[in-house]
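Notebook entry, structure prediction.
Reason for the run: the old model in the group folder had no record of what sequence produced it. Starting over properly, with the input documented here first.
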Amino acid sequence: MPYTAPRPRPRWWTELLLLLVVYVAYSAGRLLARGDVTTAVDHGLAILRAEKALLLNAEHPLNRLFSQTPAIGIPADFMYASLHYLVTPAVLVWLFRRRPLRYRAARTWLMLSTLLGLVGFTLTPTCPPRLLDASHGFVDTMAQYSSYGWWGGEASAPRGMGGMTNQYAAMPSLHVGWALWCGVMMWRHGRTPLMKTLGVAYPLLTTLVVMGTANHYFLDAVAGAVVMGLGALATRPALRLADRLRARYASAPSGPKSPIVGAGCETSAGERIPGQRTSSAGADDSTPAAAR
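New structure, fully documented this time:
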């Protein structure tokens, strides 16, 4: 039987507070999930070996193209540093305003997947390609073109704030995961060909950007898609649980209630308005009341 729990239009201020709490918790957890650098490098090299065994090597040609062609590399760096902070909230606002019945499930999917990504950062700290030894053939385009943007040599963080980001939180790629979520929302709920085209193009372009800028491996992007898939599977059970908890606490009694519907008020023969009686006087008063 399909899930048909009622979904009233959410209040914007409670949604904003909820998303802010989740994002702060995610950002703090991402920083606290910093692992040993040696372990992170080992994980990065293991991914490279796995990709080599699978005959996958999209990162190197893309990174050469981005690093040797500023007309491609500079816009790609701007995209990497900003779009996930702009497009994802924009899609959330669009859903809230134009598709309120779909918003709650979409928001829950995004939040659950983000928290699953945090688990991945904690369990598998991973050195991105740009931080590997130069002998592996990668160029950090964010550092190469840093004079064109607000970022420095430490990921996409503003200059002087590199310590506020975890550069080894590469597996999974939530850049790709969030872009995939945006793409699905635009494709599923957009009504124009342009919106559906953007829904396909945005996650594909994001995947190329994260590899070309040497911020992620291809398998990081795959892991980002997997995390979003797991979040999608967990969304309906999470909504059911939330509805059950809401119903339980909303229906909880607020105080003692009389077992009698009239709370002790009974109507005798000939009375139009019930009167309050005690149990001890009920039998004695019945005769006079009937005689009136």
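Summary: The chain has ten helices and two strands.
The old model has been moved to the deprecated folder.
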